[in-house]
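fwd from M.: "can u put these together and see what the complex looks like"

so here's what she sent:
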Amino acid sequence: MCLRIRLVKREHKQPAQTVLRESVEPVSELTTNRLSVYLRCLNVLDAAGVRTVSSQAMAEQFHLNAAQIRKDLAYFGEFGVRGVGYYVKELRRHLRQILGIDRGVCVAIMGAGNLGLALADYPGFRDEGFEIVAMFDQSRDKIGHRSRAGVPIYDIRDLRKIVRRERIQIGVIAVPAAAAQGVVDTVAAAGIKAVLNFSPGALRVPDGIKLKSMDLTVSLESLSFFLAQTEDKT
Amino acid sequence: MCLRIRLVKREHKQPAQTVLRESVEPVSELTTNRLSVYLRCLNVLDAAGVRTVSSQAMAEQFHLNAAQIRKDLAYFGEFGVRGVGYYVKELRRHLRQILGIDRGVCVAIMGAGNLGLALADYPGFRDEGFEIVAMFDQSRDKIGHRSRAGVPIYDIRDLRKIVRRERIQIGVIAVPAAAAQGVVDTVAAAGIKAVLNFSPGALRVPDGIKLKSMDLTVSLESLSFFLAQTEDKT
DNA sequence: TTTTGTGAACTAGTTCACAGCT
DNA sequence: AGCTGTGAACTAGTTCACAAAA
């Protein structure tokens, strides 16, 4: 659960003037995930040279719900103009600020195996304002080397030091399942407050640390369930 | 939306006797995802030699909700024994059957780049009944080779033929974002009914095909949002 | 007129609490 | 006594529909 900070125009005669009003309403993760989706839509629109877009037009083009777009955005401020819609560039800038990616976010990847190396060089991250600045492993064979794209691999024992030096804010867990809990504990102890986990099974994190898990097995099983059900309908 | 098939004991004097009762109630994806989680818990319990487990005990050990466990399981049958709980091995077998992984499920990976190769050799899949039988790419440099673990890389133009030959049921999209929609269309045309997508942005699939997306950027942005909010509380 | 922002209505999902079975 | 299975109560999330703004 996060708090929201809503930007509200106080003096609507001075339209650029915004005031930070802090409230204690929680924002659901479903909402924040959709903000990312909207940002991706705006990137497309902006690249296509579109200047303004209504919630309706966006909903149609990207198969979303117009009321939900408006409601999600309205949580954070009054970004729209009645009768016009939203200014694409402006809304994009607002969303990047809300998501905290307007200044680059530094990310470390724990585990320099196949998956870790693939994630380190994944181009989609850098494009959106994330920078993979380090990988960590315990294997002597890997420490001191770099990924193909040049991300250095450090000894996991140096985690704390390098987290501080590189201002690492997010840790990605790409180690075998058996090692995952131990690595998460190390990551938390090093002062990282947000963790993206790719290992299967539940991990425990201390309070105040945000854990997001992408369990590949759960996703495949969900698809398998769908197949099993549709088969049975014969 | 899937249909559920509930196993209900009709003759409770013959406790092993179950009857398939087909109903039209939809099962939410949240529920099916939790079934995977329960299966993972049961694997742990079984490996630890535990014979029976109550919903309460499972909830405590794995930080779940007991009523939800019971309700989720009760959708599919009366697997528990009042006063006792659930037989671990038996429930595990039931869940594997419900999820359709009791007979191995064949999976193909589209795209033999870093991510595709990493997924192909990811050990967590095989462990749970999924077999990565093929990768597909369009690059001459890759076609004809194999992943380190031995998964063959085919020409994407041979997709239809190999899907039929290898009985491929699930396709995983691990190609660059720009190519993703085209590849999904090809996958759908080849008769695959379930797709796991790793590329960012929305994909359109024809009706009757199940698409599940794991958007890495959305997840990282969700974490970044959390960090941005907690910083502001200063 | 067009389109936002938002209360109200609705729908989905979770948790409670207990009857009833073992 | 102990625990499941489940209706009822509750909570969260989505969509509708419209007053107000440009």
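replying to her w this: The CA atoms of residues 59 and 65 of chain B lie 5 Å apart.
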